[in-house]
Specification:
By secondary structure, the protein is an alpha/beta fold. 41% of the residues lie in helices and 13% in strands.
Length: 396
């Protein structure tokens, strides 16, 4: 008896690798004890929010008991929160962004779904470099969109702009870049974005339905060694930036994100009106009010990125010691090493036998590699080093 649609059944299969490892981890921890398992499968930000968050929450508790203190707000978000966020995004994006150019969403994921609902028709294509965030296909597929992936260039996963250029066709509607990238940890630099902008300008000339350039930036604040995530709004009038505060403020459970459109976009006000409507009619209605108020108060704050950087260095040391090839991530909190022996699924199984949880690269559209999330304690990473070495030796 078919209780779900074939489309959702396919999406469940395609997106199941992280879930499989999560479930394998539960069983492994019950059998071996949680302290004996090295779980690098989930990207769950564990660094505490900025210290000021506690004081802000106490203030919000007093406001909550007022009439409508936790009631509905405008679908696009609280005006004061939008204004505060516009100032921040204008500085980051080097563009004259105002509150009217953006709306608050239920996380970056809700922002992507809201955007796809507004711009995709059945059969439209969403183009992205691989490796890519596993949910993109499902987000687009809900509205009849089709994800097309173009492999990036290992070992540092640089954009292959020429290949992206060749992949654009009459049904291409969106080119999405995850910057910094999950799972690769790379940052697409300003020269690459400029090349993409010029390429899209050629394709968009004379098109009735433009190709949007979407920069998915929930990891923008997590950059290392002086790296800077370059602005995307100046490179194309059809650029859109989507982000969240799940990682920068460790507010993943509060589900607060945003969509900001280029102020130079033709018919930009129409797009923002459409996004406000789809944000409502998809059932999000508005981003959580407590989360919006937290973000407004903490918009210029950040978690201690140094904690993630120290973990990054610890993971790099463990992988080097095991002789595993990798590109040092410049952003986010993931490594995407090459699987010893070349078979990512087999190597993940070898790691599992050593009580190490990782995710095969085929789950991110890039077989032959595997993902490690280093949002875990440094001590756990250090203790995992012998297990990586043993698994790599077996693979060889």
């Amino acid at each position: 008896m078919d209780v779900v649609t074939p489309q959702i059944r396919r999406q469940m299969q395609d997106a199941s690798w992280i879930r499989r490892m999560f479930e394998a981890g539960i069983e492994l921890k019950q059998r071996a004890g949680a302290g004996n398992v090295f779980d690098f499968s989930l990207g769950n930000p564990d660094v505490p929010p900025p210290p000021a968050a506690a004081a802000v929450l106490r203030t919000l508790a007093d406001r909550a008991v007022r009439p409508l203190g936790l009631g509905y707000c405008p679908n696009a978000g609280l005006p004061s929160a939008r204004a505060a966020l516009a100032r921040k995004i204008a500085a980051e994006q080097q563009a004259p962004v105002e509150a009217r150019h953006l709306l608050l969403t239920c996380g970056a994921a809700g922002g992507l779904v809201t955007f796809f609902r507004a711009v995709l028709e059945a059969g439209d294509e969403v183009l992205c470099p691989a490796p890519y965030f596993v949910e993109y296909g499902a987000y687009a597929g809900h509205f009849g969109g089709v994800l097309r992936a173009v492999p990036a260039r290992p070992p540092d996963f640089a954009l292959d702009v020429e290949a992206l250029d060749r992949a654009i066709g009459p049904r291409t509607r969106v080119l999405i870049l995850n910057n910094p990238n999950n799972p690769a940890g790379c940052i697409y630099d300003a020269a690459a974005l400029e090349a993409v902008g010029q390429m899209l300008a050629r394709h968009n000339a004379g098109r009735e339905r433009p190709v949007f350039l979407v920069s998915d930036e929930p990891y923008r604040a997590l950059a290392y060694d002086g790296a800077v995530v370059p602005p995307v709004l100046p490179v194309s009038p059809f650029a859109v930036v989507i982000g969240s505060f799940s990682k920068s403020l460790s507010l993943a459970g509060e589900r607060v994100g945003y969509i900001a459109a280029s102020p130079a976009m033709p018919d930009g006000p129409l797009l923002l009106d459409a996004l406000t409507m789809t944000n409502r009619t998809l059932g999000f209605v508005n981003a959580p009010v407590v989360g919006q108020q937290l973000v407004e108060a903490l918009v210029d704050a950040s978690v201690d990125v140094g904690i993630y950087d120290r973990r990054r260095q610890a993971m790099a040391a463990a992988l080097r010691g095991a002789g595993i090839e990798f590109a040092l991530p410049r952003g986010a909190f993931y490594f995407f090493p090459r699987a010893p022996g070349g078979d990512d699924r087999r190597f993940v199984d070898l790691l599992l036998a050593e009580n190490v949880l990782a995710v095969p690269g085929r789950g991110f559209g890039f077989p032959g590699h595997f993902r490690l999330a280093f949002c875990v304690d440094e001590e756990v990473i250090a203790r995992s080093a012998p297990a990586f070495a043993r698994a790599a030796a077996k693979a060889r």
